[in-house]
Each structure stands twice: as structure tokens, then as C-alpha cells.
Design goal:
Pfam families: FAD_binding_6 (PF00970), Fer2 (PF00111), NAD_binding_1 (PF00175). InterPro entries: 2Fe-2S_ferredoxin-like_sf (IPR036010), 2Fe-2S_ferredoxin-type (IPR001041), 2Fe2S_fd_BS (IPR006058), Beta-grasp_dom_sf (IPR012675), Cbr1-like_FAD-bd_dom (IPR008333), FAD-bd_FR_type (IPR017927), FNR_nucleotide-bd (IPR039261), MRET (IPR050415). By secondary structure, the chain is an alpha/beta fold. It has three domains: 2-96, Ubiquitin-like (UB roll); 103-195, Beta Barrel (Elongation Factor Tu (Ef-tu), domain 3), CATH 2.40.30; 207-331, Nucleotide-binding domain of ferredoxin-NADP reductase (FNR) module (Rossmann fold), CATH 3.40.50.80. It contains eight helices and 19 strands. The chain has a six-stranded antiparallel beta sheet with strand order 11-10-13-8-9-12. The chain has a six-stranded parallel beta sheet with strand order 17-16-15-14-18-19, sandwiched between helices. A five-stranded mixed beta sheet has the order 2-1-7-3-5. Strand 1 (2-7) and strand 2 form a beta hairpin. The chain is globular and about 60 Å long. The two termini are 30 Å apart.
Length: 333
């Protein structure tokens, strides 16, 4: 166990990190507001300067660091394990203060089922209550080696149920195991979470969910959270879902049933593939603007999916002059 001293403008803060842990998650588990977003080396939000000590860098070529960052000696807290006591410099972000402290725990497989041709729903169970906020994610580890971040698709519960909807990645180390029924049955599974700041807010306004690819999971959790929140019982939910093929998309009836929102949920399926019938054609951000436009200023907006999609929607919200405190992004790197 190593002591990590965090140098701030006015004072120093200390926390502890084990050899097999990374600086970011160790600090978050101890209740510090370390800045972060993806937890996977892609976004660069958790950049810091190492002032003293030594670390192991897990992914030297992580896209979250630019060449300029590397020249200046900046590192990613989500990709560094301490080899000694360390002193680091970064600016805390109050928006990242954990509302629920993450923890590491063992989980067991309960069931799996296919959602689409390449998305598998995996139901895991822990010995203690599943505590998280709708829209958050956790890190799933298999056999103590492979680790990936996945968003929960269900709601927090006392039974310890964690449900994930995971898209198959061709030749992906993690999904090769997850989509192999026999391999998954014999795997040792651990969970580290919850993490993420793009979670459901208790603001009594219409809700817009935008999902691309496996961004469906956190948006399902958000929509289910709306259905269960007494404050939001009168609010409609606009659910935009983008996919390349017909088989990537769902039906309005499916979503209304899964979320428990019934007629309050309005499903808008979109695809850039002009040959798909009964959907809106075009990129999801264009369809979003066409359907709601200026109405978006009066909504709470949640978005999850590939970075290019999220970036396009982020640009759209800026162009429309939308208050960015009402926009919540989860980029899937």
C-alpha cells in the first residue's frame, strides 16, 4: 500500500493506493473528487503530473494523451499503478465527487440473453446490495486479467443484481469470453463500481435519451429510473436510438415494456442506412434536431454511445445555446 499525496493550490490531500490498483479508482473509492469520465484511457480527463515517486503505466499509447501531453510529462490516473509513495498534481472537480463510493467485489453469473444480434444481456449477482445511480457504469474483470467498463441497464436494488448489455467486439478479448457460454460459466468475475457522472438528475423536466450502439444500456437505466422517480412521474421521455441495420434497433413496444414508462416513452429509431424501412433516415444528431429543435432547451438530455456521435450531439447543444448543465454525456471509448 502506497501513500499518494495530492498537491492542490491551497493544501495537500493524501490517499492510499495498492500495488494492483490505479490511482484514479483508488482515490474515487476513498471519496476524492478526482476528475474523470471514461476510466479507460480514452478521454484524457484524469491527466495529472507526477511530482515525486514512480508508477507503472498500463497503456503508454492511450489516446487520452496527446503528443504535447507526453512531452510535458503528463500521465493518466486511470492508467497508472504506484510503485512507491507518490506526489501528484491535479485539480479536483466537484462534479466528480462520488455520490456512492465504488467498491470491488466478487459476482456470480445468473443468466444471459440476446438483446439484438450482437448485444448480450448479462445478469450478475453480488452478495450485497447493488448501489448505483441510473446511467452509471462499473468495471467488470474476468479471471483477474481482462477488464472493461460497462454501463448498468437495470436499477439499484437490495438483491445485489447487476445487469449489463454488452456489444460483441470482433476478436475482442473480453467479449470473446462473455459471448462463449461455457467460458463465461467457468470464469471468475469481479466488479468495481459504480463510476460515472452522467447519471439521472432529479430535475422536473422532460427527458431526452440518445443511445448509439451499446449506449443503449445506460439510457435504459436512465429511462427506468425516470419511471420509478416520484418527482418525474408527469414527464415524457423521448428515446432516440441510432443503428446501422434494422437488427440493431428495437421496437417502441419493447422499450415501453422494458422501461415501465408505457405511453410516456416516445421511441425514435434512426439510421443513416437509407434502405431500412420505418425509421428516420440520417445521423442521430440530425434526427434529434429535426424532431425537437428548440424544445431541447427545456429538456434534460442524456447521451451515450461512440465518441463521434456524442461529439456531434455536444456540438448541436452548443449551437442551440442549451445550458450545458442540462446535458449529460457518456462516451464509449
Amino acid at each position: 500500500m502506497h501513500q499518494i499525496t495530492l498537491q492542490e493550490q491551497d493544501s495537500d490531500t493524501t490517499f492510499f493506493c495498492a500495488n494492483d490498483d490505479v490511482l484514479l479508482r483508488a482515490g474515487l473509492r476513498q471519496g476524492l473528487a478526482l476528475p474523470y469520465e471514461c476510466n479507460a484511457g480514452g478521454c484524457g480527463t484524469c491527466k495529472f503530473e507526477l511530482l515525486e515517486g514512480d508508477v507503472d503505466i498500463l497503456w503508454a499509447d492511450a489516446p487520452g494523451l496527446s503528443e504535447r501531453d507526453k512531452r510535458k510529462g503528463r500521465l493518466l490516473a486511470c492508467q497508472c499503478r504506484p510503485k512507491s509513495d507518490c506526489k501528484i498534481k491535479l485539480r479536483l472537480d466537484p462534479q466528480c465527487l462520488p455520490k456512492i463510493k465504488a467498491q470491488r467485489q466478487s459476482v456470480k453469473l445468473i443468466t444471459t440473453r440476446a438483446i439484438t444480434h450482437d448485444i448480450l444481456e448479462i445478469h450478475l449477482q453480488a452478495q450485497q446490495a447493488a448501489e448505483f445511480l441510473p446511467g452509471q457504469y462499473a468495471l467488470l474483470m474476468i479471471n483477474g486479467q481482462i477488464q472493461r467498463a460497462y454501463s448498468m441497464a437495470n436499477l439499484p436494488n437490495a438483491a445485489g443484481d447487476w445487469v449489463f448489455q454488452i456489444r460483441k467486439v470482433p476478436q475482442g478479448q473480453m467479449t470473446t469470453v462473455l459471448f462463449d457460454e461455457n467460458a463465461l460459466k467457468h470464469a471468475v468475475l469481479q466488479l468495481d463500481g459504480p463510476y460515472g457522472t452522467a447519471h439521472l438528475q432529479q430535475k422536473n423536466r422532460p427527458i431526452v435519451c440518445v443511445a448509439g450502439g451499446s449506449g443503449l444500456a445506460p439510457m435504459l437505466s436512465i429511462a427506468r429510473g425516470v419511471a420509478m422517480d416520484p418527482l418525474l412521474q408527469q414527464q415524457p421521455v423521448w428515446f432516440f436510438h441510432g443503428g446501422r441495420e434494422q437488427r440493431d434497433l428495437l421496437s417502441q413496444e419493447q422499450l415501453q415494456q422494458w422501461t415501465g414508462l408505457g405511453q410516456r416513452l416516445h421511441y425514435i429509431a434512426a439510421s443513416s442506412n437509407q434502405h431500412i424501412p420505418n425509421v428516420y433516415h440520417g445521423y442521430i444528431h440530425d434526427v434529434l434536431e429535426q424532431q425537437l429543435g428548440e424544445q431541447l432547451k427545456d429538456c434534460e438530455i442524456y447521451c451515450a454511445g461512440p465518441p463521434p456521435m456524442v461529439q456531434s450531439i455536444e456540438r448541436l447543444t452548443h449551437q442551440l445555446g442549451i445550458d450545458q448543465t442540462s446535458v449529460h454525456f457518456d462516451r464509449f471509448f
